[in-house]
Amino acid sequence: AKVLPALKPHGTQLALLVKGGQPSDPSLDDKAVEVITRIADTAKPFDVTVVLYPHTNDWLEKSGDAVRIAAKVNRPGEVGAMFNLCHWMKADPNRDLPAVLREARPWLMAVSLSGSDTPEEVRAGKGSWIQPLGRGSYDMGEFLDALRSIQYSGLVGLQCYGIRGDARHHLQQSMEAWKGLTDTHD
Fold this sequence. Notes:
This protein has eight helices and five strands. It is α/β, with parallel strands linked by helices and 186 residues long.
């Protein structure tokens, strides 16, 4: 709570990972709603929003989990869901990306992406799921088309966790890839 006043003028989102139970176990929903509501109450006076971040092997593991909990908290614009491409590839058995994004749309406040190999390669342990944008066998244009199909215009972040090498080089490479992707798919 001591940091929140400094965040007020910046339109900050708190990306919240939720552990503490078996992945996707709905029996913990009421407790999660209670805790997330308290966090949102604390953040609201500082114009800080809460976005639920799906993470492989956590209780909040899939995009659908984030959507389910955001809907139960029911504070549009204050608490929402993030779609995380790499964790969708790794943990979510629903391969129908457009359907996953349509379900998330009412609560979608952020998207995290990176270069990647295909979901099939990632799930089989034969692919790299977090790479600089523009690398990997996954068709990022297909992903951006799916976002456009739901008319998503919110925040998009670059996932860089675990990428080795020179961070500035990877960022520059990813920025160039993003420009190429957005120029091609506008």
